[in-house]
Automatic annotation (TrEMBL):
One of its GO terms (molecular function) is transmembrane transporter activity. The keyword Flavoprotein does not apply. Coiled coil: none annotated. CDD domains: MFS_YcaD_like (cd17477). InterPro entries: MFS, MFS_dom, MFS_trans_sf, MFS_YcaD-like, Tet-R_TetA/multi-R_MdtG-like. The chain crosses the membrane at residues 34-58, 70-90, 102-119, 131-149, 161-181, 187-208, 220-243, 263-283, 295-313, 319-339, 351-371, 383-401. Keywords: Cell membrane, Membrane, Transmembrane, Transmembrane helix, Transport. It is found in: Cell membrane. Gene3D superfamilies: MFS general substrate transporter like domains (1.20.1250.20). Pfam families: MFS_1 (PF07690). This is MFS transporter. The keyword NADP does not apply.
Length: 406
């Protein structure tokens, strides 16, 4: 029960610790192992570039083949499904194989999956291969985030996790941009992705001696067990995942209903992703000063305000700063969840928590868009801000309720 109590009180305790003076011991703890941190962040960034490239690349290829939009969407859903299915196995695998070995193995297997996808360009064959791509990619994210939380000093955890989120978001954005250089036909774009996956393994191999072991203290816990320990934290992750996927997949439909052109909608999506990448360091720094839970509550309220303002400002210049901030605070909910995970949990519970994050992120990515699409069919295009607003409102209410319990 001690872990559950930590989930309720850790954020408030962290708020107090930020205002305490540094002792000599705390100054030593503030030292950052820069080589290990650079290796971890470089690994995940390169991996994000490869993944960011695959989503639009495979959609372009399927569209040229005349594949229906429904089948293209189903094919894309296979990757987050791989995230969901792989998550429960990651804690046990990392303990048995070791974090570095598992990360290197997953990098190689992901490269092999992408080679098979490039070799057999058939939507039905791609279904299981894209599932495997998600299955192999997920452990690398879980392991990397666990490493980063372990080595980040508590006093600097906010800005470090914010920097990590910003860099990974930038990696996802660079992936589609690389298609402008390599094109979308033939092997060149696949070679970029394959090389990026293999480079991940090489980076981990290079920094492996400096990386911490996977946490083994405490009692082993499953992903399902962690769900019972921290349901609010996981709902926050679900909200961040659903928010991002809903906006990226359905803003085009919303904009078209309001008579906006494709180029303007594409630019708005780019602005949303830019806010996602740029604002994470700032939010992490704010979390260090005001506490991660208070900052998450601010993000939830800002998301809700954006939902209310969207119909009013969509055709004015105010839509640009709104979408930029929206991108930052919506993904910031995930960044702040990572910070709270590090504040609240250690040992084997920590890696189970990271795996649970990946599990819930996959669910949010799969469930959010279809549910919102159905809402838009039932009540019209305003079903988009209504669905996003409901998620933001629920998170804000739950955060208030948890604070009162504490």
């Amino acid at each position: 029960m001690e872990i559950a109590v930590n989930d309720i009180h850790c954020a408030e305790q962290a708020d107090v610790s930020h205002r305490q003076p540094h002792s000599t011991a705390s100054l030593r703890e503030d030292r950052i192992p820069w080589a290990a941190m650079a290796g971890i962040i470089a690994t995940v960034t390169v991996f994000a570039v490869a993944q960011g490239l695959t989503y639009p690349l495979l959609s372009f290829i399927l569209e040229r083949q005349g594949t229906t939009s429904g089948l293209i969407g189903l094919s894309a859903a296979m990757t987050p499904l791989g995230f969901i299915i792989s998550a429960p196995f990651i804690p046990a695998l990392s303990r048995r194989v070791g974090g570095a070995r598992l990360a290197i193995l997953c990098s190689i297997l992901a490269a092999l999956a992408l080679i098979a996808i490039g070799w057999k360009q058939d939507v039905l064959i791609w279904m299981p291969l894209r599932f495997l791509l998600g299955f192999f990619a997920n452990p690398l994210y879980v392991i990397s985030e666990t490493w980063l939380i372990q080595i980040a000093p508590a006093s600097r955890r906010g800005r470090i996790m914010g920097f990590y989120s910003s860099i990974v978001s930038a990696g996802f954005a660079i992936g589609p941009l690389s298609l402008g250089l390599a094109g979308t036909e033939g092997w060149p774009p696949f070679v970029i992705g394959i090389a990026a996956f293999l480079l991940c393994g090489l980076i981990v191999l290079a920094v492996a001696p400096r990386l911490p072991d996977m946490p083994d203290e405490g009692e082993a816990i499953s992903v399902g067990g962690f769900v019972a320990l921290a349901p609010l934290l996981l709902f926050a992750v679900f909200t961040a995942a659903a928010f991002e996927q809903i906006l990226l997949s359905l803003l085009t439909v919303y904009g078209a209903a309001l008579g906006s052109g494709e180029q303007r909608i594409a630019s708005l999506i780019t602005c949303f992703i830019a806010g996602n990448a740029v604002l994470q360091i700032l939010l992490g720094r704010v979390a260090e000063g005001f506490g991660s839970r208070r900052t998450m509550f601010f993000c939830a309220l800002t998301c809700l305000a954006g939902c209310l303002l969207l119909p009013l400002v969509f055709h004015s210049w105010l839509i640009w700063p709104l979408v930029f901030v929206w991108g930052g605070v919506s993904f910031g909910i995930y960044t702040l969840s990572l910070i709270q995970l590090g504040e609240c949990f250690t040992g084997q519970v920590l890696i189970a928590g990271n795996a649970a994050f990946a599990f819930v992120w996959g669910i949010g990515g799969i469930v959010g868009s279809p549910a919102t699409g159905l809402a838009m069919q039932l009540i019209g295009h305003q079903g988009l801000p209504s669905s996003l607003g409901l998620l933001s409102f629920l998170l804000a209410v739950l955060l208030i309720a948890r604070r009162r319990q504490a």
